[in-house]
Amino acid sequence: MNLLFVIDDAYVEQFKVVLYSIVQQMPNQAFQVYLMQKVLLKKDAEIRYFVEKLGMVYHPVVVGEGAFATAPTTDRYPDTIYYRLLAHEYLPATVDKILYLDADILCLNDFKKFYHMEMGQKLYAAASHNEDGRLLDYVNKLRLKNFEMDSSYFNTGILLMNLEAIRLQVKREDILDFIEKNRNWLILPDQDVLNGLYADQVISIPDEIYNYDARYSLIYQAKSQGKWNLDWVIDHTVFLHFAGRDKPWKTNYRGRYSGLYKFIAKLTCKFEGKS
What we know:
Layout: E1 2-6, H1 12-25, E2 32-37, H2 44-53, E3 57-62, H3 87-90, E4 97-101, E5 105-107, H4 112-115, E6 124-128, H5 134-144, E7 154-162, H6 163-169, H7 172-182, H8 189-198, E8 202-205, H9 207-210, E9 212-213, H10 217-223, H11 230-236, E10 239-241, H12 258-272
Helix pairs in contact: 1-12, 7-8
GO molecular function, one term: metal ion binding
Pfam families: Glyco_transf_8
Keywords: Glycosyltransferase, Metal-binding, Transferase
């Protein structure tokens, strides 16, 4: 299986936690780990050692300084968030499918079935966090001018990528043109671009299984009439996603799943030989 990440030096420890959680759930699976980065990370040797100690194969992919120099960015959304949109330009041509993961997730269960799903000519598989109903979909379609697409607004934190189809359909010039025309309306820039251009080419997957947003735990429980509680999540959810500004590695985080994250992070440190 091929895994794709995009991080900077500030997210190295979280990246390790994701990988460790994956290996705990799929200890006999072979993984190729591709890590896209603007410049070679300062902890490159440390990362390589850790990935190889897990039994994975590490591939640093250095994009360079100017790939998205003119794209809209903020402190929260640097230009590196666009890398997943053009990953196919930088990955080896022999890689035909890859799973992109944000670094703020935990893997709680095996994802072989998800990874090997039949995608046909669809470009991506992703989940929609449509907790506010059709109104939010309407607002996003209005903002991104894609009313002709019969689709929801997809979260790109977990993104299965059909690279064979993407190489045929996703073009750099289309992405840069969309950014230029809509730069005043982009809120989550890379996510907006993907939804604005390719939402009708996305296979929808259930978020409670493959992209459970920890911020919405109470909403999930209400939606399921109490079924999707902590025990259910541990037994069924594949990727638990700590999206948003509040993060479980911060001392002031009080979310429902903070203890679970801190426990896995502690085991990761022990595995690495840190106290």
